[in-house]
Amino acid sequence: MVRAAEAVNRHACSMLESHALCALAEGVSDLLRLRIIAAVTMLLSVYAVLRAEDELPISETPADASSYPETWSTDWQTVPGSELPVPSPGAPPQHSQPSSDELAADSAYDTDDELSIFWPKPKWFGLRHSTTHGRHVGRGSPLGGTSWRNRPFYVGGEIGTMWLTQSIDENVSRDVDTFGGVFAGWDWDHYWGGELHFDWSTPELKNSEAPDADRTDSLFTWNYNFLYYPWGDAKFRPYWRAGIGNTHFDFPLDDGSRHDEWMWTFPLGIGVKYPVRRWLAARAELADHLTFDDDYPTQHNVTLTFGLEWRFGAHPPSYWPWNPSRHIW
Fold it and tell me: At residue 21, does pLDDT exceed 70?
């Protein structure tokens, strides 16, 4: 009986083992089948992509320029209600070339339009401003990499000659004498500036009716002026000067007494400046000091002077990475 039971057990175990192996074999076969299907699908996809690339059209080389027509059609159409013509379909776009006058105007008015709103364009008098004409007008060797306004403030002195072309009184003589003084100024724009003058002279104002009368031979004048630089920020910098002030005359009367008189003065002058050093400029000027008074004739005191300006003030730094302290002149 025991042997029969053992035989039955062995047969049962062999049956179970064969069933497990069959299940394992079926699982492995299913897995291999899935892998094969995935590989075939991938290969088919790659083949389809390569086939599509081979069927793409090859871009043709551009046609020779000689194949284009020599002249294009100039037929134009006008848009109803508009004066501007538009090209007809198929015609190439027309690009108008700016004239030399337009280019000059663009360069002259290369400024910020918003600023020009607050400073009207002085076209009526032919005057200029940096908001309407830029830094310069291209004359007098325009400055590059530097500017007069890098050092906008200045003080200086001048000396020259004064011609008293009109007698201040009927019996008082005219004279030619040395004329000089000091001044201080500020260029607040490339074309505009202001200047304050104090000048002296010692003309011999003799009275023919009182030749021995005591006199001081003194003439003093002060005035504030507006300067206009028509060429702007240029090395050769001509300017016009107009201002208002007073002139003090001290001269003898016919009875021998001295007379002091303050008279309104309106200087008008032209001159030129030139930078000798970055902080020093030379100048020459011809001016007429018009002097008015109700009791005396109008005076034309003409002066020719030469002077020097010492310029200073805040100027923008040049932020070079290797030398941050370097400054533009």
Answer: no
| CA dist 23 → 27, 50, 60, 208, 218 (Å) | 6, 41, 63, 150, 135
What tokens appear for 253 in the block? Answer: 């009367």
* Domains in the chain: boundaries: 105-109+113-133, 153-312
In terms of residues, how long is the chain? 329
| Most confident region among 49-63, 203-217, 259-273 by mean pLDDT | 259-273
Dump strand ranges (E) for 171-298: 176-186, 192-201, 218-228, 237-252, 258-277, 280-292
Topology at the third CATH level for domain 153-312: Porin (2.40.160)
Report the sign of the C-alpha dihedral through residues 311, 313, 314, 319, in that order.
Answer: positive
For 182, residues 6+ apart whose C-beta sits below 8 A from its C-beta are 155, 156, 157, 158, 197, 198
CA 198 remoteness from chain centre: 34
Per-residue pLDDT, averaged over 248-261, amounts to 83
Q: What is the pLDDT of residue 11?
A: 58
Tell me the C-alpha to C-alpha distance, in Å, between residue 309 and each of 61, 189, 239, 256, 274.
69, 17, 15, 42, 10
Q: Which of 328, 280, 267 is nearest to 307 (CA)?
A: 280
pLDDT, mean over the chain: 75
For residue 39, the model assigns a pLDDT of 72
CB 158 within 8 A of CB 285: yes
For residue 150, the number of C-alpha atoms closer than 13 Å in the C-beta half-sphere is 19
C-alpha–C-alpha distance, residues 196 and 262, integer Å: 18
Distance CA 161, CA 177 (A): 6
